[in-house]
Protein: Nicotinate phosphoribosyltransferase
Organism: Laodelphax striatellus
Amino acid sequence: MTEVLSKTVKMNAENEIARITNEDWKNQAHLQNRIVQPLLTDLYEITMAYAYWKSGKTKDFAIFDLFFRQNPFQGEFTIFAGLEECLKFLQNFHYSDSDIKYLKQTLPSSIEAEFFVFLRQLTVKDVTIYAIQEGSVVFPRVPLMRVEGPLIIVQLLETTLLTLVNYASLMATNAARYRMAAGDNVRLLEFGLRRAQGPDGGLSASKYSYVGGFDGTSNVLAGKMYNIPVNGTHAHAYITSFNDFNELQTKVLIDRNTGQERDLLVLALEWRSKLATIMGSMASEASDGELAALISFAIAFPDGFMALVDTYDVKRSGMLNFCAVALSLNDLGYRAVGIRIDSGDLAYLSRKARETFNNIARTYSIPWFEQLTIVASNDINEETILSLNEQNHKIDCFGIGTHLVTCQRQPALGCVYKLVEINGLPRIKLSQDVGKMTMPGRKGHALIDIMMRSVEPAPEVGEKVLCRHPFQESKRTYVIPTKVEPLYKIYWKDGKVCGPLPSLEEIRDRVRNSLNTLRQDHKRNLNPTPFKVSVSADLYSFIHDLWLQNAPIGELS
Ligand SMILES: Nc1ncnc2c1ncn2[C@@H]1O[C@H](COP(=O)(O)OP(=O)(O)OP(=O)(O)O)[C@@H](O)[C@H]1O
Ligand SMILES: O=P(O)(O)OC[C@H]1O[C@H](OP(=O)(O)OP(=O)(O)O)[C@H](O)[C@@H]1O
Ligand SMILES: O=C(O)c1cccnc1
Ligand SMILES: [Mg+2]
């Protein structure tokens, strides 16, 4: 079934892929959306850079952690995405002459000319980035990336890294949630470009919905840029552009069995009369304009015939016309692909459509008719999918736009970028709410759900480790690890990306695999169990000592 739908666009997809060789692909892989550049940032990063520079902080060495404080969508997990784009940003990082010219015009005239020379020469060769692998399941307050390097430079990276990670991770998480709701046997297509937050939002949505587990996108540029499958059907306009049979410029199709031309209209009208009886409807009720449209589409794509059936009436018109054309195609040796339903009760209509297909398969001994694909679209979201599941829907594929790409249920992930160490000294940003406290210092080794200080030795397999709740003193537990895996890898050092990066497919596989390792109760839609991220005893004391040192002592009078 999954193969069948993709036939609709196989013609396109194969042509595209044939034109983009693997070599081309490799050569293009370093290219990035050209709007991602050093000036894609907040002004305050640059004004701070000047003030740091002016106060002689050019040699200061800083560490920033990039993390979020709360999982999105009232869930208890998040998918980390956007790392590769961050690395591409670093790869191309430099201020151009025109950037400098613009900054000179824009910043106050009091800024010393030397600063612009400094900016022009700035590189990211002294920056080091540690990160969790892209596509991993991550949790609040655990740093997704740690950025080390000269203070001014790592400060200048803040906004761009955040914009590259925030939406990507939100989108991948949203898509992964839709995938979990739909299950593994249903295809998911992203149809959101027209509703996305602008062209770049649309491209990112297509890319990260694929990462999160969608099977393809209708967005052709995303297909070309990221080498992801493109797919699609047709719009109501195609159906309504035909009024009657006279508009059919060509009605003939070559019979695959005989090589002879056959009149598809004549065949389809014969089938429509026959089918009306077994489908319990009247051929006269079905729209002739719709039939003309479907015939013309079938002639254009005889191996990829997919029909939008809800323009007039699914049961009285669309299904009858579709089946008539599909059976005519079958007479000529072609297999239709399926239907799309874009309004009405999607559970009910899909069940009715499947019944009709099964009935025809039995009546005319055409077993593959049972396998015809039923695509559903129209304002679908996670809840709709869960509800349709309960109604025993017979949908094979969801086409999803608005809710997916706009992340309507939660439009932003709150990733932040906080200074945790400066010149070897840990830094803490105090907050009234301990839950929002920045974890200070380097957090090196990680044991599934424990964060430790980098100066601590890694836990050993089989040796008891004390895991503490980061803020609540009494919450502690011993764990004997059976496997210890460092969470962080070095991705950027000495001005270069370290090691080969995973392909988009591999990142997508990691999403699936890491979600599979997460307990079901953390993933359920309603009131999921929070996943506990603990800290080692040493990190606990370190955070709390520092916190006490920095917290002012009040005085009651
Ligand atoms: N069986 C179902 N159970 C739950 N939700 C459904 C079911 N069928 C459709 N929906 C959802 O209900 C909503 C129906 O919206 P609405 O009534 O605006 O659509 P419509 O009138 O059928 O079509 P349109 O206005 O787009 O032509 C959509 O969000 C759709 O995804
Ligand atoms: O519903 P979404 O999840 O956003 O999915 C994409 C929608 O885009 C198309 O509709 P179009 O924009 O042509 O208008 P329509 O809603 O009137 O069908 C398509 O028919 C879907 O309904
Ligand atoms: O191909 C489709 O069916 C499609 C594409 C974008 C939006 N709605 C539908
Ligand atoms: Mg719609």
About this structure: The first strand starts at residue 61 and ends at 67.
